[in-house]
């Protein structure tokens, strides 16, 4: 398209020669027909110039035309239209058979550029290329006059660009342009201003020479543009082939203005990453863009090389390094709660739809090293991370990090190939449990340091749907720590529920371990073990991650002492996270006491029964013994009598 624009400029010069050279010799109607026929033959499309041609003597000798139009290749919308064209020339040059154009003014021109769904355009065809080349050759031999342009201006111009394949429809209005080119081999300078989507833009461009560009070569260029408060500058080389080499400096304090300018809507960019800045060098072709420099996002700074392979889906490759990165604003946005849920039930997860379409805009392979990354609820130090994106599936891997007070590795996957799904794996060593549970599940009542393992998978188009669909498993192994909300030691020590339950109540433990499974957003645990000075406690129950509710029972096994006598008092934890109810299970206590009493009564009854049985047995034994003695005595007497008669 750029080459075609340059050809239009050359054809404009031909038109000027015809108009100015014949204005005093031919009628307006004939001159308009000659000019129209000349350009129509050159462009291969119909060009119409009205016969409202008239000479002008002030402010410079020249001519002014009426309305003009240039047809598109498909005969639907005209390629270009305008209300008129004003040309001023140098009289002395004209008398010397040299056309020195002093100024050219296009009045309300409208350029309509259309790229159809089949890839064809309304500004170029295969036959047009051949015609343009032949016209260029003929034009070079016909006038053989030196051409200069002291001034070119566009008043209230419009450019309408439509791309059916990409779904683009851009309208640039109120275009004002001033340009100057002393000679075809000399520098071309231009200044412009325009408005699109309600946004104003302006800039200055300077080419070292136009002729090399028209010949397909490169030339020096300097560009400085202002879009609202945003600024862009470039100094280097460009070519019509799309090659660009040079130094750039970009500052975007209001990038939403830039997005609106290009038809990208008014997407809100977090203020924490503003201004967006980039400075460095670029080496680009029509297939690839390579950049090396430094990049700023608010207070965050990154540097390193990156490249983009251009195609239907661009591929970004980067090796970036940064210092202390502040991303704390991300934790404030993620998992935001809805505002219409009852306070007693907790605010709940956000039901706002997640737009993950951005995952399909490019593929990427990015490596990042940072001194630290602040995530709001926690911070990571000495971070080495990698991000890959392939066909709308992104994988962020933590290769090395010191996080939650320990060492952390893992990965997070976001897949938008067939609806959005997220998955993750994490392995932490001696990490801070409170920060970890707050980040993962929004639960902040447990403190301590230990080892963790977690894997999960969730599907949905909102955070609420994802949390309610979670599946996975994990484990905790914590050293010394505490749980706020209840104090088991006070409860067992006789202080009662008033002191043992509440925001200030704390259970201190020496160790805690648990494993769990997750299904349909509900985490199930059956093997919680808490060891403390006065007791051991085992727990089991459900943590409903989707509904943000707990239904859990901790059953202590109290070490026997004078106060407790070894009594077990279960503790119930239930309700929404925002308003947990933590209380001793008195029904269980009553059942426990009844069980103890029953066992005591049973033992006493069995003891009495045993005593009575023993007494009865003793009495029976005594009677038996007495009868045995009597029998023995009788037998002895009988024997003595019998023996006595024997010896008489």
Q: How far do the termini sit from each other?
A: 161 Å
Which structural class best describes the helix and strand composition?
A: alpha+beta
Number of helices: 12
Q: Give the uncertain stretches in residue-range form.
A: 23-28, 126-147, 333-345
Structure report:
- With 648 residues, the protein is α+β, with helices and mostly antiparallel strands.
- The chain has a 33-stranded mixed beta sheet that branches.
- Strand 18 and strand 19 form a beta hairpin.
- Helix 1 (2-22) runs antiparallel to helix 2 (28-43).
- The protein is rod-shaped.
Provide a short characterization of the protein structure:
This protein has 648 residues and is of the alpha+beta class. The chain is 25% helix and 46% strand. It has a 33-stranded mixed beta sheet that branches.
List keywords for this structure.
648 residues; alpha+beta; 33 strands; rod-shaped
Compile the SSE list and pairings.
Elements: H1 2-22, H2 28-43, E1 47-49, E2 54-56, E3 62-64, E4 68-70, E5 80-82, E6 84-89, H3 91-95, E7 100-107, E8 110-115, H4 126-141, E9 148-163, E10 168-181, E11 188-196, E12 199-207, H5 211-214, E13 218-227, E14 230-239, E15 244-252, H6 255-261, E16 276-284, E17 288-297, E18 300-309, E19 315-326, H7 328-333, E20 363-374, E21 379-390, E22 393-403, E23 406-415, E24 421-432, H8 433-441, E25 446-459, H9 463-469, E26 471-486, H10 488-492, H11 497-500, E27 501-509, E28 511-519, E29 522-531, E30 535-544, E31 549-558, E32 571-576, E33 581-584, H12 586-647
Parallel strand pairs: 7-9, 8-9, 19-20
Antiparallel strand pairs: 1-4, 2-3, 3-6, 4-5, 5-8, 6-7, 9-10, 10-11, 11-12, 12-13, 13-14, 14-15, 15-16, 16-17, 17-18, 18-19, 20-21, 21-22, 22-23, 23-24, 24-25, 25-26, 26-27, 26-28, 28-29, 29-30, 30-31, 31-32, 32-33
Helix pairs in contact: 1-2
């Amino acid at each position: 398209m750029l080459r075609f624009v340059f050809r239009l400029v050359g054809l404009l010069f031909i038109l000027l020669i015809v108009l100015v050279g014949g204005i005093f010799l031919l009628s307006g109607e004939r001159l308009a027909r000659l000019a129209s026929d000349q350009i129509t033959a050159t462009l291969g499309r119909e060009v119409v110039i009205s016969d409202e041609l008239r000479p002008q003597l002030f402010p410079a000798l020249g001519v002014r035309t009426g309305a003009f139009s240039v047809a598109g290749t498909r005969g639907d919308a005209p390629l270009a239209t305008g209300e008129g064209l004003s040309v001023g020339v140098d009289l002395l040059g004209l008398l010397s058979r040299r056309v020195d154009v002093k100024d050219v003014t296009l009045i309300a021109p409208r350029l309509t550029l259309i790229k159809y769904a089949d890839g064809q355009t309304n500004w170029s065809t295969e036959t047009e290329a051949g015609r343009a080349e032949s016209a260029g050759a003929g034009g070079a031999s016909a006038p053989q006059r030196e051409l200069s342009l002291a001034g070119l201006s566009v008043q209230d111009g419009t450019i309408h660009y439509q791309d059916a394949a990409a779904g683009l429809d851009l309208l640039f209005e109120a275009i004002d342009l001033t340009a100057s080119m002393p000679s075809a081999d000399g520098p071309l300078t231009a200044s412009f201003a325009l408005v699109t989507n309600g946004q104003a833009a302006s800039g200055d461009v300077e080419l070292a020479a136009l002729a090399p560009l028209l010949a397909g070569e490169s030339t020096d260029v300097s560009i400085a543009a202002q879009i609202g408060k945003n600024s862009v500058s470039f100094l280097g080389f460009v070519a019509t082939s799309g090659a660009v080499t040079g130094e750039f400096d970009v500052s975007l304090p209001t990038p939403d203005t830039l997005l609106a300018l290009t038809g990208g809507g008014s997407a809100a960019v977090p203020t924490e990453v503003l201004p967006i800045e980039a400075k460095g060098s670029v080496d680009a072709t029509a297939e690839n863009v390579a950049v090396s420099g430094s990049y700023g996002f608010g207070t965050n700074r990154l540097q390193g090389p990156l490249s983009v392979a251009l195609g239907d889906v661009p591929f970004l490759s980067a090796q970036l390094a940064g210092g202390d990165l502040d991303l704390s604003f991300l934790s404030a946005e993620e998992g935001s709660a809805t505002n219409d849920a009852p306070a007693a039930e907790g605010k709940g997860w956000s039901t706002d739809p997640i737009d993950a379409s951005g995952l399909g805009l490019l593929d990427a392979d990015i490596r990042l090293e940072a001194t630290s990354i602040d995530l709001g609820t926690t911070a990571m130090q000495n971070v080495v991370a990698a991000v890959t994106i392939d066909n709308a599936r992104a994988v962020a891997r933590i290769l090395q990090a010191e996080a939650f007070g320990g060492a952390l590795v893992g990965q997070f996957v976001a897949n938008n190939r067939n609806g959005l799904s997220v998955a993750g794996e994490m392995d932490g060593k001696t990490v801070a449990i409170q920060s970890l549970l707050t980040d993962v599940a929004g639960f902040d009542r447990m403190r301590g340091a230990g080892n963790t393992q977690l894997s999960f998978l969730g599907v949905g188009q909102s955070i609420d749907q994802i949390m309610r669909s979670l599946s996975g498993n994990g484990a905790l192994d914590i050293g010394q720590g505490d749980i706020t909300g209840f104090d088991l030691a006070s409860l067992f020590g006789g202080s009662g529920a008033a002191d043992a339950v509440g925001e200030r109540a704390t259970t201190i433990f020496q160790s805690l371990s648990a494993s769990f499974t997750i299904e349909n957003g509900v985490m199930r645990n059956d093997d919680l073990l808490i060891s403390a000075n006065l007791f051991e406690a085992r727990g089991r129950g459900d943590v409903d991650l989707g509904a943000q509710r707990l239904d859990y029972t901790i059953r202590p096994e109290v070490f026997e002492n004078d106060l407790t006598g070894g009594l077990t008092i279960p503790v119930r934890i239930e309700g929404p996270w925002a308003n947990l109810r933590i209380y001793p299970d008195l029904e269980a206590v009553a059942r426990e006491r009844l069980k103890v009493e029953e066992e005591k009564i049973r033992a006493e009854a069995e003891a009495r029964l045993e005593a009575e049985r023993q007494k009865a047995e003793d009495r029976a034994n005594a009677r038996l013994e007495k009868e045995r003695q009597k029998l023995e005595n009788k037998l002895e007497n009988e024997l003595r009598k019998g023996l006595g008669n024997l010896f008489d």
